[in-house]
Give the backbone structure.
Amino acid sequence: MRQVLHLGDQVRYEDCEYRVVALTGTHLRLAGADDTTIAVLLTHLLASDGFALLDAAPVPAVVNPRLDDLDTPTADLARQWEQHIVEVETGLPLGAGPDARPRPEYDPATTTLTERCQAKARELTALGWPASPRTIARMRRRLRTTGDPRTLTDGRARRPVTMTGDTDPRVVEVIRQALQAEIPDSTGTRDRFRWRVQQIIADRYPDDPPPVPAKSTFNKLLRTMTTGTYTFDAAVTRRNMNNRPAGGFTTLTFPRPGQVVQIDTTTIDILTHLGDGITERGELTAAIDVATRTLCAGILRPQGTKAIDAAPTPACPTNG
């Protein structure tokens, strides 16, 4: 007879038939044919007169026996845990031959599940793999619930890391579209933006609207998704940033002097007196050699200067 009970097993207890509907530690909850439920200690159930396992529910199948989606160290760790947990559950390690016999400390006929967990914790600790009986019990519940050895490894290594966390992808898509719509508009508040997102979701998904994160979580998500976009800052800056041309795909290097010269113009806080007596802010146009990072030419003129104005200017004298 199988020594391990699972949810859904049909058993006989005190001349009545019950279905296992809950497992909590060493206690079980059994449901009878008339929908009445009773709680019973597992050891008492197994030792009671007339106990029998009538119909065993199928044990969950392994989702990915080969663990191809895990790296080699993680897959090896999952397999090792699986071997140890199966031995705790059944008394025999996974893949044991038909003539194999349980070790005394793992024999279900003479030991309790708690004793087997304690024995396995001592064994792993002696092997340099510190583990407590609570850890063994937690791993046993994971494997029994899912049947997947991958759950015996660190879930953080399996969980894909995304910029938006656990937020529903439909909500993320609505936020992205709403952010694009904010570019030409006047700058609003985050509360107004959240209200707009809620309205769009309600209109787009009337039957099954995805949940919008709480205000604090929503604002954290916005800070992540709007980095460098100035969505809730100056409108002029936001529009200028959006109108910038896309940058190059690669970083170019120019080893020879004069191979590439960059020319740019910027407004400076200097008043220039024109011939008709009018004063205006000046503009500085400079030409920089990319290879040597030296100033090739510079010119100060009134507003309206073009970069080409620096082209015919003689090079500035250099020291030495």
About this structure: The beta strands are 10-13, 16-24, 27-31, 37-41, 52-55, 261-273, 279-289, 294-302.
